[in-house]
Amino acid sequence: xxxxxxxxxxxxxxxxxxxxxxxxxxxxxxxxxxxxxxxxxxxxxxxxxxxxxxxxxxxxxxxxxxxxxxxxxxxxxxxxxxxxxxxxxxxxxxxxxxxxxxxxxxxxxxxxxxxxxxxxxxxxxxxxxxxxxxxxxxxxxxxxxxxxxxxxxxxxxxxxxxxxxxxxxxxxxxxxxxxxxxxxxxxxxxxxxxxxxxxxxxxxxxxxxxxxxxxxxxxxxxxxxxxxxxxxxxxxxxxxxxxxxxxxxxxxxxxxxxx
Length: 259
Fold this sequence. Notes:
Layout: H1 2-7, E1 12-15, H2 22-31, E2 33-36, E3 46-49, H3 56-64, E4 68-71, H4 75-89, E5 93-97, H5 103-111, E6 116-118, E7 132-137, H6 143-154, E8 160-163, H7 169-182, E9 187-191, H8 197-208, E10 212-216, E11 233-237, H9 243-256
Parallel strand pairs: 1-2, 1-3, 3-4, 5-6, 5-7, 7-8, 9-10, 9-11
């Protein structure tokens, strides 16, 4: 969608980095896409809403400024937003499993004002007995962590608990595949932006599987000394990592292995 927008030759902005991959952002910047931090910084033109979504007030402000909006919010993020908004409208106390400063979570908070953001290993906030609780998750969270949060909520005396599993299926499948691969190799490389939540999670679960793991953004970060004594090498990548970066890393590994 971003490539189509810049092909028109018009001024195009994105609210924040379109995805959490610096190499893709730089490529799009050279093509004419300018990331900005706020509505006031645009000064007219087209604005792309990134995959993480935004607070509803941002959409309202863009419309008021007569900006042309290109909504590239991930459909699964939209599903999470709709679930949070539904719970909020029906007067549930909304609990979000996620990272408080992540743009997706900030957008979710806009759809459920007053929602509580928690992590799986932290203490549950004190809530009134007999409250009605709704639970959703940032789409890139671990299913096991989501179960922990739900179990903590169910362990308390609430009137009603309503749970929406808003974790991305593709993220779950990628995580399972990464673990299976990690158990079958001598070293793992996880490729993707260091500011990408799902890529960081992949690196964490590969390390937890007991294999030596390195998180790289590009093939240029590969240190040949890491490969000494290794026979089987595993490669996985985050959701926002483009195919050309993966091919570059695999190509370099094949070159080092003599084909």
